[in-house]
Amino acid sequence: MFFLSLVSGGWSPKVTDRQPWLQLDLRDRMEVTAVATQGRYGSSDWVSGYLLLFSDTGLAWKQYRQEDGVGRFVGNVNADGVVHHKFSHSIRSRFLRFVPLDWNPSGWVGLRVEVYGCVYKSYVADFDGRSSLLYRFNQKSMSTVKDVISLRFKSHQAEGVLLHGEGQRGDYITLELHRGRLALYLNLDDTRLRFSSGRVAVTLGSLLDDQHWHSVLIERFNKQVNLTVDTHTQHFRTKGEGDSLEVDYELSFGGIPLPGKPGTFLRKNFHGCIENLYYNGINIIDLAKRRKPQIYSGNVTFSCSQPQLVSTTFLSSSSSFLSLAATPSASGGFMVRFQFRTWNPDGLLLSTQLSLEPQRLELQISNSRLLQITQNLHPAVSTGHRVNDGLWHSVSLSSRSLQVTMTLDNEPSSTIELADHMDAGDNLYFGGKRTDNMTKTSLGCENPTLAFQGCMRLISINSQPMDLNQVQQGRLGNYKELQFDTCGIHDRCLPNFCEHGGQCSQSWNTFYCDCSGTGYTGATCHNSIYEASCEAYRLTGSSSGYFSIDPDGSGPLGATQVYCNMTEDKVWTVVTHNSTDPVRVQGSTLQKPYIMKFNYSASPEQLMALVAGSEQCQQEVVYSCRKSRLFNTWGDPLSWWVDQGGERRTYWGGFLPGVQQCSCSLEENCMDMNYFCNCDADTDSWANDTGVLSYKEHLPVSEIVIGDTNRTGSEALYRIGPLRCYGDKSVWNAASFYQESSYLHFPTLQAELSADISFYFKTSVPSGVFLEDLGLKDFIRVELSSPSVVTFSFDVGNGGVVLAVKSHVPLNDRQWHYVRAERNVKEASLQVDQLPLRFLEALSDGHLRLRLNSQLFVGGTAARQRGFMGCIRTLNINGMTFNLEERAKMTPGVSAGCPGHCSGSSSLCHNRGRCIEKNSGYVCDCSQSAYGGPSCKEEVSVSFDRESSVTYTFQEPFSVMQNRSSQASRVYRESTRARENMAFSFMTTQSPAMLLTVSTFSQQYIAVILALNGSLQIWYRLHVYRKPDVFSPSPSSLADGRLHRIRIHRQGKDVYLQVKNFDEEVMQAGSKGFIGCLSSVQFNHVAPLKAALLNRGSSLVSVRGHLVESNCGVLADSTTSHPLSGNFCGCLLDNLTCDVITNPCSSTGVVTAVVFITLCVVAVMTRFLYQHRQAQRDASIKEKEFLRHAGLDCIAARECKNNPPKWNIC
Q1: What burial class does residue 677 get, using C-beta atoms within 10 Å of its C-beta: 0-12 exposed, 13-18 middle, 19+ buried?
Q2: What does pTM read for this prediction?
Q3: For site-directed labelling of 648, which of 604, 764, 1078, 1186 has its Cα 20 to 30 A away?
Q4: Cβ-Cβ contacts under 8 Å for 643 (sequence gap 6 or more)
């Protein structure tokens, strides 16, 4: 152990220092485990926040980051207190540098430090890119079932082999640096991979060419492998038939010495340093230093002498720059060279005023390509591809004679021919421009091009290297917002915080998740786009059809496709399998039984979640037999089935678990009362033991085994029906809280990185805590803070954050209200009922993990104060439903269920109608439904002539627009979210026709039309300067006089839909008009058509032409309809994205929906979800496979290569 104290009076820099820092030299590399700080003794000087950097040489530095990637250390609040920081992972270094960020505003920077740690011993080898270490085995080959390989390395190059070994039978192991990441290739006796060029690597780590030490650990036992790089570990299983790794003759470290050896990789050797290299407990470098005979060390030295390439970080994308004088060149012209690395797709690398005024030369990154611009002279020249990949890139720009040449890495140079000689001006600006009067444009904008945000090194001007130390000391050039001696690049996609297979991309300050094709949405792909059950789809107003359900919501299970039968009072979920037809079985014995395994359209885990969340499940087993017994004379089973858990079951349809009997025994009507099953009578005539399995914990049937059909005339005939379940146990799982001090407690919430919380509540009290969970400092809480305000608050270590949603009506009105709160590493959100969502973005460099250690309290707090009194139901957290009723049965002050007519599972109000409690009963609020009547089931239909139309204006109430979110310690950027849901029914024989448009005042719109051939088209124009995307859900004509119901849902990011001008085909459809009626029109939470009938005096409704209330929906519903059934398979064009559109001419938030109506419409539903091209192509394949198993055919879809894309209809 060692302890270093820098106390005395303490350190304080000069007031004139632009970037003060305190540097410690430990005299040798030490293992540092903790630091402590104080202010300067007897003063008002202290540091309240600082960065900690470390270095082996004192030249190239790296910032120490804590477990969450947080680089900022919390300092002192006075001069005398001591603040300790124990490191989650130690630092092995000689030099430490403390960089103050904040200090006492009433004093100055003052610092006393203490450093804790121990001596670090290292065995080092230096590889020059042509050297290697060979470890030769004592025998011809080495075969191991267990391997442990550990080492540490550092390099400034992104490519190089660290370890390689291979055997004659095809085994191999290779560890190499590739594009700054570590790739491990490992194969155990898999001849297919031996002769294949497509070897698959497991990759881990990032930015490993930063000239700093990185640790590697490979642990293998048989096929199970753990690969650890620094603090990140990946677990995987190797391919191959064997469990042992057989390597012939030798292992090589630092390179592959024989590139012509069969099966080896033609890769670059490693150029850098390796230390503490151990292979199965053998210290390889120690053996090499002692010149042991089993080690060959070619050109390897045993001290690390790698050059230190000093970098500079450009911190700001708006104000960073480095200005250097353009030294004159003896040959005329100029030449600039430098290296850069960044994540940003845009940024200004270099600019200078040319000698020929007013021309300027600029070198910039634009759309991830390198772009050279000579203003007022030549068109731009571009080169490179994805230069924002985080790797170092070399660029040179030179002017000689009448040519300007640009070279990027090893790519061919790009040259511009000039009409006159070109020389640089007095200064070259790297990374940006000064924002004084010299760079203002005619529009008054400063720095129209984003400044470069990233790292630069090896800057030279006219072959003269630039010494950045002199820049830092103020003796050379000028700068702003730079950090010297270090490259502050940070991989925000390691680890990958995108869930459910979302693809991570990043900029310098944040990361983004592409959720296309995952079935999830949100900033981190956390939220499922599908409902959790068929019951949930029914509550949204859907009718029978095929739906994708996600039984565990945001949990790890994906969505699966099922059939939802909503024609009965109960909503049935139907899951099919691969053998739904009757099967005849003959010739089986107990020794060689007939076995059939059932593959369902859902995975076993999805089936388990579906069954567990349902109220009841059942599966019909049709079983007929002739001279084929189910049990022998002694009662031993001759046939059985296997349940979902793999257990053998010997009871048959209709009987109870645990008893080897059939339904006829339970009903006492077996054909021979001496037996418990009809088949056991063993007669020559056909017998039947058909029944329904209904013990849901055993369902579904995964396998059937039949073993008595080998006798003459013996046979069996069976059919296993689909799994059928009804009910959603979570929807009405409720608890009532009667005392302020009462609560339900559950295990600690597991929500370090993400948490979504949703529930319903009703109450008459003005305030109360819905739920709370605490840690040492962190917490999460959702509460009713006042009669009309719900708040969501939490702290992950960055200071408390509070989101609040204020309702324009009281929430303590004894009616059900919906709350959904979500927090992840990117943002937090809160939604209450249909009010706008409130969003806050998280700090880009703040703490990420929510660390809780207390119980989760529901309906109250640990302090038994501010408890909630009322009802809570359907509590769901991270896809898991909490059983409130079960816990309430054993808790005083809380009862299971909730009193009132609107608290049961029976559907009193339909089609999105809301149940309202009354003293003597209930009423249905149909204001947010397109239907009317006492139960929101009656069609609202209107007849129109050719000139009729209805215009509905959406304008949020002022009180809703005033929702605000606050925070305690940090400023988070707010945003709001929008979505659209459209539904209507129609019947017509005319086309073309306009059905519905949504628009605002600019040139974006949504239009639903019938084209000239009668096919339905949905037009999305969300980009002013792009062609609209056109969807054709039905290639056939819908102007067929039959009933169709259309349902459209889209959820986007910060979208406003606006329009002025329609494209020609849309205008043609609208100009034709048509005669008829329209029914059940729904757009988001309003029903424009119903509003036109019931609120004709409202300023929100504008009616043109003659409207007559009609019953066409009821009449059409009584006739035979032909629905557009099934799901759509299709794609969305890649250019369809959702942008934030701000209208400078309007701030009222007005959106206009115009409904042109000439169709007779009633309720039959079809739905589609759209995603990116490849995702939908994959979904189409999966859907067709599902429908093929279900006995349905699907019209083949065309490739999504042309505009508009074609959809297939099932």
Answers
A1: buried
A2: 0.77
A3: 1186
A4: 649, 698, 699, 701, 702
Return the ∠ at Cα 187 (arms to 185 and 190), rounded to 5°.
145
- Structure tokens belonging to residue 1076: 């008829």
- Considering the domain delimited by 744-896, tell me its CATH architecture: Sandwich (2.60)
β 1044-1052/1166-1168 pair status: parallel
In whole angstroms, give the CA distance from residue 1180 to residue 1197.
Answer: 8
* Contact criterion met (CB below 8 Å) for 274 and 151: yes
What was the pLDDT predicted at 722?
94
For the chain, what are the domain ranges? 22-119, 124-190+200-258+267-297, 311-434+450-483, 574-604+613-728, 744-896, 940-953+978-1109
Residue in 1071, 1087, 1082 with CA at minimum distance from that of residue 1156? 1071
| Partners of residue 565 on adjacent β-strands | 572
Q: What backbone torsions phi and psi does residue 928 show, to the nearest 5 degrees? A: -105, 15
What φ, ψ does residue 1091 adopt, rounded to 5°? -65, -35
Q: What type of residue sits at position 690? A: T
Candidate ranges 184-198, 374-388, 632-646; pick with highest mean pLDDT: 632-646
How far apart are alpha carbons 368 and 207 in whole angstroms? 18
**Distance between CA 161 and CA 264 in Å, rounded?**
11
* Contact criterion met (CB below 8 Å) for 1159 and 1078: yes
Cβ atoms of 52 and 28 within 8 Å: the answer is no
> Position 484: which residue type?
F
In words, the CATH class of domain 311-434+450-483 is: mainly beta
The CA-based angle 45-48-53, given to 5 degrees, is 105
How far is 705 from 593, CA to CA, in rounded Å?
6
What is residue 133's three-state secondary structure? strand
Q: Between the CA of residue 435 and those of 448, 449, 451, 476, 588, what are the distances in Å?
A: 10, 11, 11, 20, 87
- Cα gap 1005→1156, rounded to integer Å: 15
Residue for token pair 């070198």: 363
SS3 label, residue 382:
strand
| Residue range 688-736, pLDDT digits in tens | 888 899 888 899 999 999 998 999 889 999 999 999 999 888 888 899 9
Closest among 702, 732, 718, 727 to 607, alpha carbons compared: 702
How many Cα atoms occupy the beta-carbon half-sphere of 272 within 13 Å? Answer: 28
Q: Within 13 A of 235's CA, how many CA atoms are on the CB side?
A: 2
Residue 371 has pLDDT above 70, yes or no: yes
Query: What are 316-336's pLDDT values in tens digits?
Result: 988 899 999 887 776 677 889
DSSP string, 616-627: EEEEEEEEEEES
Nearest to 873 by CA among 821, 919, 819: 819
Residue 1208 CA, chain-centre distance (Å), reads: 28
Instruction: Tell me which DSSP letter residue 477 carries.
Output: S
